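Quick illustration, no need to memorize.
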Amino acid sequence: MKFPKVHSLQDIANLLQCEFVGDASFPVYGMNEIHVVESGDIVFVDHPKYYDKALNSAATIVLINKEVDCPEGKALLISDDPFRDFNLLTGHFKPFTQANVTISSSAKIGEGTIIQPNAFIGNNVVIGENCLIHANVSIYDHTIIGNNVIIHSGTVLGADAFYYKKRPEGYDQLLSSGRVVIKDNVGIGALCTIDKGVTGDTTIGEGTKIDNQVHVGHDTVIGKKCLIASQTGIAGCVIIEDEVTIWGQVGITSGIKIGSKAIVLAQAGVTKSLSGDKVYNGNPIQESRAFLKQSANIKKIPEILNKLK
């Protein structure tokens, strides 16, 4: 997420009421999670295990809970609770805006697009030309939708990321300030849920078709011309390359990549990254030929045991 204008390190430290290391005029352009940070961004880290990763990332401002050696060309914000203060920044620069109409006056809707009754279109949503948004679809603030997109009833675009920090008193949610971006010619079935990015975009590529009751987690990027069947659950920060086919009830863990033209058969559990141009099956996931061979061998076990008697 980029801020509306460039701020100084001193400005941000004053907002958070925290100490800093670096030039007071050091420029701050925005804030992002570590997998999408750029120069000028703030990234937060609150566990020693990840200090090096954050300090050596592309981010040039590190919101951290311990004063450490500051890498050259970077700055530190010293906080007793970086998670809390990252939320404070989100709430300050991208606060929640209450809606009072079903289609926001700030939404931009292209020529030929049909919005069926009871659909909700939030603030600063952009919808392209010749789309069909069916009844009871909810499109949250800042969502971007291309041309010729069809979205069926009950689907929700832009709900918060499922991202929590465990506290003694319960779970503390990391506020989401990202977007959902739907490219041209995408089809989305009924009762799907696509979460927005924490600070970046959850993206569905051009020509991809998604069946009913599919969940897509925050910051996931799905490529062009993919097919995703019903009841598939995709966790956050997954990369699915072009022309991947995922059949029903597949579960995909966070932070992995599925290569172009891979096929994942029904009810598979995808727990690791997969190369493209192969067929996969099983839980834990493996190439389908190996899975079928293994299944066939298991069926032979009673016969082998009888021979040993």
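The mean pLDDT is 95.
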